[in-house]
Specification:
Length: 429
């Protein structure tokens, strides 16, 4: 990874300014959680207000002096801004403060670098880091920005800065090529699932809404879950059995955040395609969060950016244990499930969630009676194995009548395997 982190937390001064419109402002409490998630040690929090950022140093002279005093007093090693800084602003601030300066995007990238576990995840993080760093190279090479002559200094006619930029471009090109292979592999696996007609359900939501805890509870998986931002980075897929529907593929994905850096959205395209190609999105919402509605709107914005805004969405209001609420399903005027209230930590409301998923995905279901002769025992056994049989009775001539409900694709495949017409099988008496 490109960021070298010390073994212990770095002492950091945090800077947050209220700028512009209210909906464009960052949340200072969330910013502090990000710093803690990155392993930082916040020693001071400098806040202020400006109509617009200073073009050279982002903050005014008075606020700059306040930040410098905090750095000296606490012997801070790092100053973190809850904003996106231009490369020139970062360089000017570092020169004035005599310590490292990192903006919100760089901080999120560092958290992602710590969380990546799979080869794909590490590639995606490195790509985002390189793209972010490419405009900031001059900070480290100002002493080599001119061509020099002399013994040992004559080179290929390009400066050290130009050499580094060329190497960065080549590395970015290499990573993009490798990620394209990953993307092709994902597409191949996705097509195989589509041929098998297994519905895909993706968990989406604001970071730290409880997606991984819910995922683990539903699938009995062991995905890392913690009360911190971006605990999950790499996507995980598991099969989940839904009563009266059958198997679905559930995907746990990276959490979203307000003003998610565009570089990250681009770098994580292969991962986010699991969301864009899903049949149903479970939008997990921390119902106890004060900014629940604002966070939800930011998730919808990211879904629009990755082309997933038109996919069916079921809201899952998690952490009802913090509100003292009971599990329930809220429906629209047509009786369709809109949201389900659950507690992933206590395991409450899962039956209602499974019911709602079944209702939202059950539009292509086959339901009715199937009459089977004694010679069709293999089909009868397969229907039972698929969990499709609701009841069984017998006719006077000994034939069995099975009341079934299952996905149409699964039923057609079973019938075709027995060389039977699915429509005639359902209508036969």
């Amino acid at each position: 990874m490109l960021f070298e982190r010390p073994d212990s937390g770095e002492r950091a001064v945090l800077v947050h300014l209220d700028l512009g419109k209210a909906e464009e402002r960052e949340d200072p409490r969330e910013f502090e959680e990000l710093v803690l998630s990155a392993g930082g040690d916040p020693v001071a929090f400098v806040v202020g207000q400006r109509k617009a950022p200073d073009p050279h140093r982002f903050v005014g002279q008075g606020k700059l002096e306040e930040i410098r005093a905090a750095v000296v007093e606490h012997q801070a090693e790092l100053v973190l801004f809850n904003h996106a800084l231009r490369p020139s602003q970062e360089r000017n601030l570092e020169r004035e403060l005599q310590c490292r300066v990192l903006d919100r995007t760089g901080l999120i990238l560092d958290i992602f670098a710590q969380r990546a576990r799979t080869h794909e995840g590490k590639l995606q993080v490195e790509l985002a880091q390189l793209q972010h760093m490419s405009t900031r190279l001059v900070r480290g090479w100002t002493h080599l920005e001119r061509q020099k002559g002399g013994i040992g200094l004559r080179g290929p006619g390009e400066t050290q800065l130009e050499t580094d930029r060329r190497l960065l471009r080549e590395r970015i090109k290499s990573i993009n090529a490798r990620l394209e292979k990953v993307r092709a592999q994902r597409n191949q696996a996705r097509r195989a699932r589509q041929r098998a007609e297994i519905p895909a359900v993706s968990l989406v939501g604001y970071t730290n809404a409880g997606k991984s805890t819910l995922f683990n509870a539903l699938t009995r998986a062991d995905v890392y879950a913690a009360d911190q931002l971006f605990a999950t980075l790499d996507p995980t897929l598991r099969r989940l059995q839904i009563p009266e529907l059958g198997a679905v593929l559930l995907a746990d994905t990276v959490g979203f955040i307000r003003h998610l850096p565009h570089k990250l959205v681009q770098a994580f395209r292969a991962t986010l395609e699991e969301v864009a190609e899903a049949d149903l999105l479970l939008h997990v919402i921390d119902c106890a969060a004060e900014e629940r509605d604002v966070n939800s709107s930011h998730v919808v914005s990211v879904l629009e950016e990755i082309g997933a805004a038109d996919i069916g969405r079921l809201d899952v209001y998690n952490k009802i244990d913090l509100l003292g609420a009971e599990p329930r399903i809220d429906r629209d005027e047509h009786g369709r499930p809109l949201r389900v209230w659950v507690s992933a930590r206590e395991g409450r409301g899962f039956d209602l969630l499974a019911q709602a998923i079944g209702e939202r995905l059950g539009t292509s279901m086959v339901a009715g009676d199937v009459v089977l002769s004694g010679a069709m025992g293999r089909l009868r056994a397969r229907l039972y194995d698929a969990g499709a049989v609701l009841a069984e009775s017998y006719l006077e001539d000994g034939r069995s009548v099975l009341s079934i409900k299952m996905p149409a694709g699964d039923f057609n495949r079973l019938a075709s395997g027995e060389k039977l017409d699915p429509q005639r099988l359902l209508a036969a008496r």
